Amino acid sequence: MNHIQFENGKLILLDQRKLPFSEEFIVCETAEDVARAIKDMIVRGAPAIGITAAYGFAMGIKEGLDVDDVYSLLLNTRPTAVNLKWALDRMKNFYKKAGNDYFKLLEEVRKIHLEDIEINRKIGENGADLFKSKVSILTHCNAGALATGDYGTALGVIRSLHKRGLIKKVLVDETRPYLQGARLTAYEMVKEGIPHFVITDNTSGLLMSRGEVDAVIVGADRIAKNGDTANKIGTFMLAVLANYFNIPFYIAAPVSTFDFSIESGNEIVIEERGRDEVALINGKSIIPEKSPVLHFGFDITPNELITGFITEKGVVKPPFDLLQKA
Ligand SMILES: CSC[C@H]1O[C@H](OP(=O)(O)O)[C@H](O)[C@@H]1O
């Protein structure tokens, strides 16, 4: 997936707001352009916004922006995904050694980008090792190639299972209101020829009650020290349902999504976004003009509802000792 490209000093992003019906690209020429692209969700997904911000950091330094200013400009775009801060911290630390050497900074960004793809392939294989027979997997939002450097985290597991002939079907819930599932995950499933069905967000319980779901696998935006996990709004409800039906519920995420500086999910900031994302579909209002909305981008799944965390280092559980070793 070439949704994040860097050419001639410009960052070229696939506009994910236009998928699946139109593949249009946005050209970012400044760090300001990159910040806006992240905030407007032209690019989205925890690792993908980290990679994008890293390119923006190098572009900002080349423009002559103060290092703390470019760091803050990009960090303040979206609050929940820790990968954004992880990538910017890595670039800022690298800057302390490389200084304004733009080409060295770009080399570090490329390393972040390529490492992420390799990490996702490991997540895919580690997750696929959990299953020995054909399975139906339910997934929420888009934790795929479009949300990462490529291959995906939750969809990385699904891609690896598909390669092993172990996918019966993928249940793709639509994920209102941005519709990452219906628009983006379904787009990836079609491109890869993976058998799938798009379902409405409120269909999951019925399918679980009918034995149609063998496991739930989703991505993550920030995982606290105790395993409480921030992910797209609606994840918490799925975890409660999965536990009610004794269906395994996995989080697939790179180590860079774990935030060991926070003890629990209570410390995770939940992004709130604008009214229009709920009130409009294709620019047309679907609610009364005078109706206010509550629009939270994420929720917190308590660690006790999570069967395991599929990472590039293996499948782990709190206290995550394996992840904290050098
Ligand atoms: C592989 S992390 C993807 C993660 O990011 C999504 O959020 P958004 O689309 O708002 O950036 C969602 O929480 C996914 O699980």
TrEMBL record:
Substrates-to-products reaction catalysed: 5-(methylsulfanyl)-alpha-D-ribose 1-phosphate = 5-(methylsulfanyl)-D-ribulose 1-phosphate
Signal peptide: none
Annotated coiled-coil segments of the chain: none
Enzyme type, top EC level: isomerase
Source domain of life: Bacteria
Binding site for substrate: 44-46, 78, 180, 231-232
One of the record's GO molecular function terms: S-methyl-5-thioribose-1-phosphate isomerase activity
GO BP term, pick one: L-methionine salvage from methylthioadenosine
Site entry (Transition state stabilizer), positions: 141
Keyword Isomerase attached: yes
Keyword match Isomerase: yes
Residues of the active site: 221
The enzyme's E.C. designation: 5.3.1.23
Pathway: Amino-acid biosynthesis; L-methionine biosynthesis via salvage pathway; L-methionine from S-methyl-5-thio-alpha-D-ribose 1-phosphate: step 1/6
A UniProt-annotated Pfam family: IF-2B
Function: Catalyzes the interconversion of methylthioribose-1-phosphate (MTR-1-P) into methylthioribulose-1-phosphate (MTRu-1-P).
Entry similarity comment: Belongs to the EIF-2B alpha/beta/delta subunits family. MtnA subfamily.
The protein's name: Methylthioribose-1-phosphate isomerase
Organism: Thermotomaculum hydrothermale
